[in-house]
Design brief:
The chain is mainly alpha-helical. It has one domain. Helix content is about 65%, strand content about 10%. It contains one helix and two strands. Strand 1 and strand 2 form a beta hairpin. The chain is rod-shaped, with a radius of gyration of 23 Å.
């Protein structure tokens, strides 16, 4: 049976080789978006980590005082 498999519970599940948009084109577009926003995401993550680090330092200093 092409495209159909039986799951562990005995139900039939469909295996699609491509999504409605096409598996490969969907992955390509996701990769394009990822590359496009990589610098902004890296900056956002860096800023969030820095703010978290600052918060932890302030809490530690407040605890020591």
């Amino acid at each position: 049976m092409n495209g159909v498999r039986e799951s562990a519970k005995g139900r039939i599940a469909w295996q699609s080789k491509t999504s409605p948009l096409g598996k490969r084109s969907g992955l390509r577009s996701l990769r394009r978006v990822e590359r496009r926003f990589a610098p902004e995401m890296a900056a956002y993550i860096r800023d969030e980590l820095y703010e978290g680090w600052q918060s932890a330092v302030r809490a530690a200093l407040a605890f020591v005082k």
